[in-house]
């Protein structure tokens, strides 16, 4: 049987429910029960679970209010909208007098804003993870292109080296052509001096000079083509280096962007975790 002191304490708490409600930043309803029944209920502005005063405490078996009354400990839980049509946080605190539990005071706090914030944080985290994966894929593609650019630059250098080797051969051919032309000219002069006996010798000398001139012209043509080719390869190599430098710079920007995404994802995870309430 309740003592007068216990009854007085419970009555004081019932009268204080409107003031207690104002301590919450979100819409809240307050319930007070003794060890037998509900003795006080104060609905919120929008949140109203319509708990009747006088309802037996056994009707609330399994709730935080009943469990706090039985265990004598503070109990808190978070529920979604599937229970009463809106998300809420329920907290039940046993009322103890002289070491005995004489009742329980419970609050049901509307949790729509926090639920929306948590949901938004989780959505943001998922979006950021997707963007991070995309930037990582782009960064990997950049690195692959840069590697291919390095290979292309090395190949162009090999081509340039080959061109220079061929130009040396062309120079050698031109030198032989020059010497052959001089040799043919000398042979023609000697053939002319020989008169009738030197005609055959002059024919051979003429063919040597003709072959020397043709070799000279071919060597000059090939040499010019090699010069043009070397210029084109050099220009291509310069473009490859420029593109590689630009891609390296863009790759650095992607790394910075990826770091920023990771920071946002971590912040969103922390926010979602801070919004989550563990049942106690």
What features would you describe in this structure?
By secondary structure, the protein is of the alpha+beta class. The chain folds into two domains: 4-110, GAF domain (Beta-Lactamase), CATH 3.30.450.40; 116-275, Methyl-accepting chemotaxis protein (Helix Hairpins), CATH 1.10.287. 68% of the residues lie in helices and 14% in strands. The chain has helices at 4-15, 17-21, 64-71, 81-84, 112-194, 199-275, and strands spanning 28-34, 38-42, 75-79, 88-97, 100-110. The chain has a five-stranded antiparallel beta sheet, sandwiched between helices. Strand 4 (88-97) and strand 5 (100-110) form a beta hairpin. Helix 5 (112-194) packs antiparallel against helix 6. The relative contact order is 0.10.
Total helical elements: 6
User: How many separate domains make up the residues?
Assistant: 2
Report strand %: 5-15%
CATH architectural arrangement of the largest domain:
Orthogonal Bundle
Largest sheet: 5 strands, antiparallel
Classify the fold: give the CATH topology of the largest domain: Helix Hairpins
**What gyration radius follows from the Cα positions, in whole Å?**
48 Å
Helix coverage percent:
55-70%
Q: What sequence of helices (H) and strands (E) makes up the elements?
A: HHEEHEHEEHH
Order of neighbouring strands in the sheet with most strands: 2-1-5-4-3
Given this structure, which CATH class of the largest domain is correct? Mainly Alpha
In CATH, what is the homologous superfamily of the largest domain?
Answer: Methyl-accepting chemotaxis protein
Mean pLDDT: 78
Unreliable segments of 5+ consecutive residues: none
Distance between the termini: 30 Å
Which secondary-structure class do the elements indicate?
alpha+beta
Number of strand segments: 5
> What global shape is seen?
rod-shaped
């Amino acid at each position: 049987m309740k003592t007068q002191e216990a009854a007085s304490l419970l009555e004081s708490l019932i009268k204080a429910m409107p003031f207690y409600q104002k301590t919450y930043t979100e819409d809240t309803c307050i319930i007070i029960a003794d060890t037998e029944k509900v003795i006080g209920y104060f609905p919120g502005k929008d949140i109203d679970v319509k708990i009747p005063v006088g309802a037996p405490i056994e009707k609330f078996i399994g709730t935080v209010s009943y469990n706090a009354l039985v265990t004598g400990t503070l109990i808190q839980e978070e529920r979604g909208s599937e229970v009463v049509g809106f998300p809420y946080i329920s907290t039940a605190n046993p009322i103890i007098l002289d070491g005995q539990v004489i009742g329980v005071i419970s609050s049901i706090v509307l949790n729509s804003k926090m639920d929306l914030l948590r949901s938004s944080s989780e959505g943001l985290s998922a979006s950021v993870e997707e963007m991070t994966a995309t930037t990582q894929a782009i960064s990997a593609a950049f690195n692959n292109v840069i590697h291919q650019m390095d290979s292309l630059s090395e190949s162009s250098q090999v081509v340039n080296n080959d061109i220079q080797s061929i130009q040396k051969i062309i120079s050698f051919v031109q030198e032989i052509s020059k010497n052959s032309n001089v040799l043919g000219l000398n042979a023609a002069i000697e053939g002319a001096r020989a008169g009738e006996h030197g005609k055959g010798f002059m024919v051979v000398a003429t063919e040597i000079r003709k072959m020397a001139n043709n070799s000279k012209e071919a060597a000059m043509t090939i040499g010019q083509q090699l010069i043009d080719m070397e210029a084109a390869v050099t220009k291509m190599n310069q473009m490859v280096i420029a593109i590689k430098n630009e891609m390296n710079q863009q790759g650095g920007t992607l790394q910075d962007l990826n770091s920023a995404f990771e920071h946002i994802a971590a912040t969103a995870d922390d926010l979602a975790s801070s919004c989550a309430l563990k049942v106690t």
